[in-house]
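User: structure tokens for this one?
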Amino acid sequence: MPRFSVCVEMIFRHLPFIERLEATSKSGYDAFEFWQWQDKDIGAIAAEASRLRLKVAAFGVGPNIAGGTLVDSSNHDAYLATMRMAIEHAKRLDCQTLIVTTGNEIAGLSRAAHFDALQRGLERVAHAAAEDGVTMVVEPLNTRVDHAGYFLDHGADAFRIVREIGHPNLRVLYDIYHMQIMDGDLISTIESNIDLIGHFHVADVPGRHEPGTGEINYANVFHRIDATSYAGHVGLEYRPSGDHAASLAGVKALA
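Assistant:
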């Protein structure tokens, strides 16, 4: 069974944020993740995670998906400053994985120029992360349903740029929900690029609900991930279609 992490931004979202951690623990899970840190009480999260013996699997550099863009070279210094603050919070939370998004396309800029700026930005991100032993995972997102205008929207592009940079502190966050919408060919892609994957996200298609509610054969996907060398977490980043705790039990049954 994969090492699951509960995304408490989407699961147990009806509860006050800090109470979501105990709900995660009571559901039989030992890891969680969240999105941006800027609106969180990091001290409270650290204390509650320690009390419950929960692992903070990942969180986002932020501040949001569209902003803080890495495809704009004039923004790189500001992004690195935000990233360094995120790393300090990661140390406090004993978290080794931070999520990077590329930002939206810039009008009038060629695709080649976007990629050039992104590569230079990610190189800086990787070197800065290495100083503190943190892994940065860059996430391609779908632009057909959820994130119109986002730049990095295909897995092949993410794997290519991370492979070209070739830094051990830079990996891809492979979100199976997003990449099913954009690319398909999930298992082959995962197995061919497992050395470059630093984190997974899962949800089913359509609807972004829990695995087992849509078209993806998650029993097979989980089995094939288990058969690889992957030792990281698989983040459950879905909207429960019904009872939240019951959906988490269903994921374990499926795996």
